[in-house]
Amino acid sequence: MELFPAIDVSHGAAVRLAQGDFARQRHYGDPLELARRYADGGARWLHVVDLDAARTGTPVNRSVVLALASWGAVHVQAGGGVRSAADVEELLQGGVSRVVMGTAAADDPELVEQLAARYPGRLVVGLDHRGGGRELSTWGWERPSGVSLHRALERLHGVPVAAVVVTTIERDGVLSGPDTVGLADVLARSGVDVIASGGVRSAQDVRALSSLEVNGRRLAGVVVGRALLDGRLSLEEALAACAAFG
Asked: Can you give the three-state secondary structure of the chain, one letter per residue?
């Protein structure tokens, strides 16, 4: 299972939100310095999100994302406000290894299918949900989509995406533990690689995700944010836990 340290960017700074609430925001300094720290510690990937773009559709932190991607020390999986073919092309040409589309996957699934076919293995679909997957949230988690998690997974059948990132919004940024039951259901319903996001607070949580297996399938990765930033979980511990059941 791959570790994806999270770097969420708002107004040029690395931040974390609690349950996607922009009013509950903690600042963690320079995103590039944070990326260097993760790379020096052995991380191979970063999960980078332009939070302002996710909310408004305007990529105000695109230069920060591209600076992280062009640095080249780690692979960058980036999203937030990626709503068009031009957005995807700019990010891929700028050095981003994989582009995450969330809102577009709910609002315009045909576009995602077309881009996944054009860039096989380079597109990731973000499935951010509330209420046990009954409905995906879009536009920075501020709008209901009318699309259920299960319906979104069905739409992706046969689409050559690299993975889905499944985020349980109620657990994100509040250190409440991952939704292993919900993630097991996603593994059972989907044939695409699944990356877990939301709630990780300890090495024990990461090991629980690494050992999760359904019908011979395991999680492909885990996004970890606040636990690493607050020092509750060291990068070394997280990497070891990801490899515990490899």
From this structure: CEEEEEEEEECCEEEEEECCEEEEEEECCCHHHHHHHHHHCCCCEEEEEEHHHHHHCCCCCHHHHHHHHHHCCCEEEEECCCCCHHHHHHHHHCCCCEEEECHHHHHCHHHHHHHHHHCCCCEEEEEEEECCCCEEEECCCCEECCCCHHHHHHHCCCCCCCEEEEEEHHHCCCCCCCCHHHHHHHHHHCCCCEEEECCCCCHHHHHHHHHCEECCEECCEEEECHHHHCCCCCHHHHHHHHCCCC
pLDDT digits (tens, 9 = 90+) for 64-108: 999 999 998 999 999 999 999 999 999 999 999 999 999 998 999
Range of the domain at 147: 2-242
pLDDT in tens, 196-237: 999 999 999 999 999 999 999 999 999 999 999 999 999 999
- How many domains does one find in the chain? 1
Enzyme catalytic residues = 8, 128
Whichever domain contains 85, its CATH number is 3.20.20.70
